[in-house]
């Protein structure tokens, strides 16, 4: 039986996975900054590491999975001020929306979901250690910065040299930093900032920089040395590089053994961006496609490869998932434990142990479909459902999926109505009208009543 191999970004190669503590895995993934709706890129990141989490558990590991929430950030402050609301109200609302999106996509909740604002004392503790180790200093503008050139090994994750970084540096040198490469650990408070983002420290009132947040939350919940750290490819530099510098600079030992990064999402072969008009939130996508179709579409690509979002690819994913559900509908599956010695299951395990190769694992599911259709075997149908379940697929009533009933279930209608109310509150009437139109296309008629009440009925 093959052993799990993980592509380690730090080593730039596949490596056999060996946990620090036998039988146990500690994993941290950089989660959401909660000031807006999650988009399809976030859906990919959270689905990818949900699959990693599920597979580690399927292998029998006792997994502790931490996915953080960034609830203090420049963008969060700006959005709250713009909306005329407190930061805690803004972030609470978008945390709720995030949970609705992840629930729809079948993403399991992590074991811990820490919020940055809950770990400020731990952040200050790390900064004090860095200062004591000669790696942090207070600048003339009141910020506390990390001294990059004093940390040996900076750039080892991204492969960037200090000379290359310095040549392309665009940071304003009038910030009080000793070197433009240095990054902020603690931001001095500004008079115009809300009081709720000001914490007392030995360096004066301020708030944490983004990078220090993850170092504090991960070490507090998983220890100063843990197994896996993941996130999107866009976080490799500078965020994860800075995490390593902070954590290893403070503790003087290895921070993480295996670094994992999922690939980018493109839209019709172009980079997704609001300026190009090809930016899609999870909610917008779920208005058009069943959530399991979206999950299947994401999983069908290898996590490290680029994922090209398009209607054609989503339609193809829907047709492929329909084929899987049709096999489940036609043969009543035995409800038996997964037999890993069965040839299809063994090939599935081999694929997943090869750096979570979900495209090959899914091809095994289609091999099983062919056998189920040919033999009408309840045992093989049970294997199909159980193997797909490891990926969070095929766990619904086949008839309900095939009839498309999940596309307009009550929970989804309610979620879309709440999104429309929020859009109206933010005076984004174009978005509110778009949601109303999307529901009407699904046969749902909205009726606005006094008191900000919206009722709905099927046309």
How does this structure look, described?
- The protein is of the alpha/beta class.
- The chain folds into 3 domains: 5-265, Rossmann fold (3-Layer(aba) Sandwich), CATH 3.40.50.620; 288-406, Up-down Bundle (Four Helix Bundle (Hemerythrin (Met), subunit A)); 409-458.
- Helices cover 45% and strands 17% of the residues.
- It is built from 16 helices and 15 strands.
- The chain has helices spanning 40-58, 74-83, 87-104, 120-132, 162-167, 210-222, 236-251, 282-286, 291-299, 311-330, 343-353, 358-375, 378-390, 398-403, 410-425, 429-441; strands at 5-8, 13-16, 24-33, 62-70, 136-138, 144-146, 183-188, 206-208, 226-232, 256-262, 265-267, 270-271, 307-309, 444-449, 453-458.
- The strands form 5 sheets. The protein has a 4-stranded parallel β-sheet with strand order 4-3-9-10, sandwiched between helices. A 4-stranded antiparallel β-sheet has the order 5-6-7-8.
- α9 (291-299) crosses α10 (311-330).
